[in-house]
Every structure is written in structure tokens, then in C-alpha cells.
């Protein structure tokens, strides 16, 4: 089973950490958490805050403890293939989050793997060019439908909706 994941972060720096995480299962159900920074998570970018709109103060007030979020994430995604549109960044942020509970982050794969698998199952006789055209059409339609919010749940839902439409043969 695929899990469609998105994180928002304190910055894109080497010392960055996840501030929000969301995931969507294949059935469209989802979970999302703001994450209260650990005491040693001090990196912060005003530019990142301007994109996602979440202040450090809001995280301290409204965020869930990182350990609780990590435990929930690990339990919810066990035996699933986690896919994202930014695997290199998400891998690092998951490693940081899961490290709070003494675990390494799980494997993270490019969302394109899920999309290609959905295409192949829905359009088994299609050529690679036809698959590429269909994927482009579905992505363009989704981009018109929603603008990227730079919030974890809307962004994870966008990845999932593209997969769902490809799986269901919608163009």
C-alpha cells in the first residue's frame, strides 16, 4: 500500500527539521500534525515561514510533541511504501523526527513510482509516450484545481489525487 507524504520544514538548511507532517492512505484517509520543535531544534528561516505561514510561536502553542508524532507516523505507515515529491528532503526530516524516539526514518520513494504503477495497471497496453501524456494531463488538471499551499495536508492530498485519477483511468 502506498502512503502519500508531505512535510513542511523550518528551512531547507542542513539543520532544518519538520514542523508539519501529513500522509494520505490509498483510500483517501489522512492524518496531519503540527510538530512542536524539540529544545535543540533551533534552525528557523523567515523565508520558509513566509511560504508555509506557520510561526515558531504557533508551533510551540499548537504543535504536538515530536515523540508522539513520530510514534504515530511509524505505527500508521508500517509495511507501507512511502512516496513523496521531495524524497531527499523528506528522508532527512523523517530521520530527524523518528530519531526523537530512537528510530531511523523509513525508506522514502519518489511519488513517480506510485504514479507509474497506477498508469501501468489502468492502461496496461499504453505506450510510454501515451503514459507520459496522460500523466502530464492529470498533473495539469490538478494544478489548475488547486494551487500549492505549502501546507502538508493539501500538498499530500494533491499527490494522492493524481495517483487516484491515474489509477482510475481519468484523463
Secondary-structure blueprint of this entry?
Blueprint: E1 2-9, E2 18-25, E3 30-36, H1 46-52, H2 56-62, E4 64-65, H3 66-77, E5 81-84, H4 87-99, E6 108-110, H5 111-122, H6 128-145, H7 152-167
Parallel strand pairs: 1-5, 3-4, 5-6
Antiparallel strand pairs: 1-2, 2-3
Task: Please explain how this structure is put together.
- Helix 3 crosses helix 4, helix 5 (111-122) runs parallel beside helix 7 and helix 6 (128-145) runs antiparallel to helix 7.
- This protein has seven helices and six strands; from the N terminus they run E-E-E-H-H-E-H-E-H-E-H-H-H.
- The protein is globular and about 55 Å long.
- It folds into two domains: 2-110, Nucleotidyltransferase, domain 5 (2-Layer Sandwich); 111-167, no CATH class.
- The chain has helices spanning 46-52, 56-62, 66-77, 87-99, 111-122, 128-145, 152-167; strands at residues 2-9, 18-25, 30-36, 64-65, 81-84, 108-110.
- With 171 residues, the protein is of the alpha/beta class.
- A six-stranded mixed β-sheet has the order 4-3-2-1-5-6.
- The mean pLDDT is 92.
Tell me the number of strands. Answer: 6
Order of helices and strands: EEEHHEHEHEHHH
* Unreliable spans: none
By CATH, the topology of the largest domain is Nucleotidyltransferase, domain 5
Within CATH, the superfamily of the largest domain carries the name Ribonuclease H-like superfamily/Ribonuclease H
> What oligomeric assembly is this protein in?
single chain
Count up the helices: 7
* Amount of helix: 40-55%
Alpha-carbon distance between the termini?
23 Å
Amino acid at each position: 500500500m502506498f502512503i502519500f507524504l508531505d512535510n513542511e520544514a523550518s528551512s531547507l538548511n542542513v539543520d532544518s527539521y519538520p514542523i508539519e507532517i501529513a500522509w494520505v492512505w490509498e483510500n483517501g484517509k489522512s492524518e496531519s500534525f503540527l510538530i512542536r520543535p524539540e529544545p535543540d531544534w533551533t534552525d528557523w528561516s523567515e523565508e520558509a515561514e513566509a511560504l508555509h505561514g506557520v510561526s515558531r510561536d504557533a508551533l510551540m502553542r499548537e504543535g504536538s510533541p515530536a515523540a508522539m508524532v513520530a510514534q504515530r507516523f511509524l505505527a500508521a505507515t508500517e509495511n507501507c511504501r512511502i512516496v513523496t515529491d521531495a524524497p531527499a528532503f523528506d528522508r532527512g526530516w523523517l530521520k530527524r523526527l523518528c530519531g526523537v524516539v530512537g528510530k531511523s526514518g523509513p525508506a522514502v520513494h519518489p511519488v513517480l513510482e506510485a504514479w507509474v504503477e497506477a498508469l501501468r495497471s489502468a492502461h496496461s497496453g499504453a505506450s510510454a509516450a501515451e503514459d507520459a501524456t496522460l500523466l502530464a494531463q492529470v498533473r495539469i488538471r490538478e494544478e489548475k484545481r488547486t494551487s500549492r499551499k505549502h501546507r502538508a495536508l493539501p500538498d499530500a492530498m494533491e499527490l494522492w489525487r493524481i495517483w487516484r485519477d491515474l489509477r482510475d483511468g481519468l484523463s
